[in-house]
Specification:
Structural class: alpha+beta
Helix content: 25-40%
Strand order of the largest sheet: 4-3-2-1-5
Shape: elongated
Largest sheet: 5 strands, antiparallel
Order of helices and strands: HHHEEEEE
Radius of gyration: 24 Å
Distance between the termini: 77 Å
Length: 109
């Protein structure tokens, strides 16, 4: 009794990776994230940042380095909103509290 050969596409499918537990890869990557403490800026750095913040205008393309949930992130985009009352800088859809901003890179820099 001769065995029938398995079609090539089905043979290849048995070697494809599968996830026994959904979301495991993401959970492991999140676990690997190195948590850092928020840096306290010196008076000089705060003054320099304040000067840059006063130059930021709605619609301007800027890069912001900011602290979020244990890590520093960098975002580049158009400024959608600057709310001095709430102390929020919004770049595209990302809202960043002023106190979490480490640096702003303006177009002429």
């Amino acid at each position: 009794m001769a065995r029938q050969k398995m079609p090539m596409d089905k043979r290849a499918a048995q070697f494809l990776p599968f996830q026994a537990v959904k979301g495991l890869d993401e959970a492991l990557r999140a676990k690997e994230k190195i948590i850092v403490e928020k840096i306290q800026l010196s008076e000089e750095s705060l003054h320099e940042l304040d000067l840059k913040m006063h130059k930021v205008k709605k619609g301007m393309m800027v890069t912001a380095i900011y602290y979020d949930k244990g890590e520093y992130l960098k975002i580049t985009g158009l400024v959608a909103r600057i709310d001095e009352t709430s102390r929020i800088l919004q770049i595209v859809n990302t809202k960043i509290p002023f106190d979490d901003i480490r640096d702003i890179i303006l177009p002429e820099e």
